[in-house]
Amino acid sequence: MILAGFSSIHKSYPSMSVLEGVSGVVKTGEKIALLGANGTGKTTLLEILAGKIKRDSGTLEIPNSITRGYLPQEVRVSDTGNLFRYAVGGLDDLVGMRSRLREIHGALSEGHGEKELLSELGRLQSRFEELGGYQMESRAGEALAGLGFGSEDHEMKLTELSGGMRNRAALVRLLISSPDLLLLDEPTNHLDISGLEFLESFLKSFDGGVIYVSHDRAFIRNTATSIWDMVAGKIMVYPGGYDNYLVEREKRLFSALKQYEAQKEFIAKTEDFIRRNIAGQKTRQAKSRRKMLARMEKLRKPPSKDGAAALRFTGAGRSARIVVRCDKVSFSYGKSPFLENLNFKIERGDRIGLFGPNGSGKTTVIKLILGELEPVSGRIELGRKLTVGYYDQLTENLDKESDPLSAIREIKPAWNEPQIRSYLARFLFKGEDVLRRIGSFSGGEQSRLVLARLIATEPNFLVLDEPTNHLDIQSREALEEALVGYQGTILCVTHDREFLDRLVEQIFALENDSIRIYLGDYTDFRQKMMAVSESKETAPRSSETPAPTRKKRKRRTNPQIVTKARAEISAIEEKISDLETVIKSHETSSDWEKLSTLLEQRDNLYKRLEILYLKLEKLRENGN
Q: Which of 90, 175, 251, 538 gets the highest tally of CB atoms within 10 A of its CB?
């Protein structure tokens, strides 16, 4: 069934044209990921489909019987009630039915109009039960729990919730209302990993249609049945999931580039013919070709990765071996204990993901390390020769009244204006943008500016609090590439699972108000947690007779994970071999500083290699 169809929709603002003739159809059961760089019109299209703004031209057809549910990027809630009642309010029809049922029961108890009321009661009760009215509260409770709200949060006033919590509350209300068409603008922004997995599960089983904007690649890979790629004001449709989209997009870009280059060459040759013959014997042919060129539809140059920010960390000096030592640290907010007996050590070159659900204390741990909070007991020590680069997810370190030029000059006072402009251009701030008020920038633009300031400090210890928030996929991949080549130490909080898998080698998991350390990336950590969960579920209770032992069926290993691990091992071994050659060379043996740096690089590669070999061994065991 077609839920919505639109054709040749145009939308412009005074400074730019956003949509230039977009067309599409949404059917029941489709889960469409709306992709594209920041500023390509994704939010504008959702707002038009949701009826929030008007299109300039084009047609939009949505049957009157189709219900729509829209989640904007930032939710404004005027409701002054509590969280639970707000969530249940998404079931307006059922709430109204229940209220009428109570009225009917009250009237019947007083002996009024029994025949008519009994007839209405039967019809209404049947419809109420059919729509799941008796499960209203349980549905709301399950959705609230799935998106990270505990039962103790249910009575909280909406006015007491943070912006992120209000967004999650609005998402709960929307999901349980079960509209025919869900329109979600970056629903993953305020979710932790368990919340992401809950939303993934919900969307997979959702019967209606969905269009969503997200830059979370794992989320898109796990949910999308089709990809709409916004390019130059148009929609490019890619049937199938995210992996198919990546392959097909490369094919289409290659083909489009060939066509563009061929047309460009044809135009150049034709214009040359016209110049040489417009006044000669072949003037009629020249005029005919000039008319042909005037009528020809010129192809646009296909987009390339040149539009991504060029991120690169340089000049990070070498810190002491111990970067952070945390010894028996406890912390409380007021009289309530929050974190207890934290013990961990971060060494030079470590790549650590700090993991835990929303509200578990990840940002608190970061602030304790940075010295912005004082522990109630215990001690945190930072190593010598440390230059800390802190990425703040709220971009609070930016002066919103300033401009990018001044923001970089504050860190690099010796740089002249052309140098600063050249540096900012790497982060896609060009021309008059470098003088714009920072407060007028989008979330993605502010995030890029924070990264520009961070890289300019040349840190050797990066503390990153949700660095991928507001970044589009191209910018996320550019940041990953930069961090892969970074020689310093990384402590990162992120809910981007692909980001974690590519960069981290240890997980610091916040569990029961303390930290537990796991070797490996997020996938390794996740597999360990699932194994623990399964063992708890299958363990017999003490009062039960143990079931006869049977050979446990091992889960099959994804061959792509094995291939990826082997490829990385091969690449690292090749790098080590190259380093060994340089280390043994005559030129290096006489340069102690260079030799020391190379030895450290080699040692870090050996550490990573050891982790990969352990991972591969476990994968082999699971595969046997």
A: 175
